[in-house]
Design a protein that fits this description.
Distance between the termini: 100 Å
Radius of gyration: 26 Å
Number of domains: 1
Strand order of the largest sheet: 1-2-3
Length: about 180
């Protein structure tokens, strides 16, 4: 009886039907995850480029309109108007503007403000500090926006900067000098 069972098992193992199916089942998840990670990375890169460009346009507007520095809410709205591909931009964008002395430089705080401040907690103020600055002041401006993943299970998720809610953090920084009035 054991010999017959061995013989039957050998016949099953020698059969070649379904060999391609086994390769397919092993390789398709790998290729699919690479495809999804590439799509996710492409979309995040596009969102980052739009955020960076909109921050550059807002800073240019601040520099060229001498005598008028917009408020935090006006600046958020101006950035979000230009960054159309960022979902819920006005609610997820946090800004940090700091005045710096170029002759006595202080280190700028770490860029983790987006993850710690935007955790959907209404008691937390999304602005660390927002100094408008005066003429000839060196200003540091950081914009941080949190966005959800489109494909949450993609391989890209493990290497990206994320907050406690699992959202990706896109951080853009800009330095400019306030023009005289």
């Amino acid at each position: 009886m054991i010999a017959a069972l061995r013989h039957k098992l050998r016949q099953i193992l020698r059969r070649e039907e379904g060999a391609v199916t086994v390769d397919f089942v092993i390789m398709v998840p790998f290729y699919l995850s690479i495809f999804l990670a590439s799509a996710e990375l492409g979309i995040m890169s596009m969102r980052y480029a739009f955020l960076e460009r909109s921050l550059d346009l807002a800073v240019r507007d601040i520099r060229l309109t001498t005598g008028h520095t917009p408020s935090h809410d006006d600046l958020v709205q101006q950035i979000c108007d230009q960054a159309a591909v960022i979902p819920s931009c006005t609610t997820n964008l946090s800004l940090q503007m700091l005045q710096r002395d170029p002759r006595n430089w202080e280190a700028v705080p770490a860029a983790n403000t987006c993850g710690t401040l935007h955790d959907n907690n209404p008691d937390v103020d999304p602005v660390v500090r927002f100094d408008n600055g005066d003429a000839h002041d060196l200003m540091f401006l950081r914009a941080c926006v949190t966005v959800d993943a489109i494909f949450p299970g993609a391989m890209f998720r493990s290497v990206a900067l994320r907050n406690a809610d699992g959202e990706y953090a896109l951080v853009v920084e800009n330095v400019f000098v306030q023009e005289p009035q």
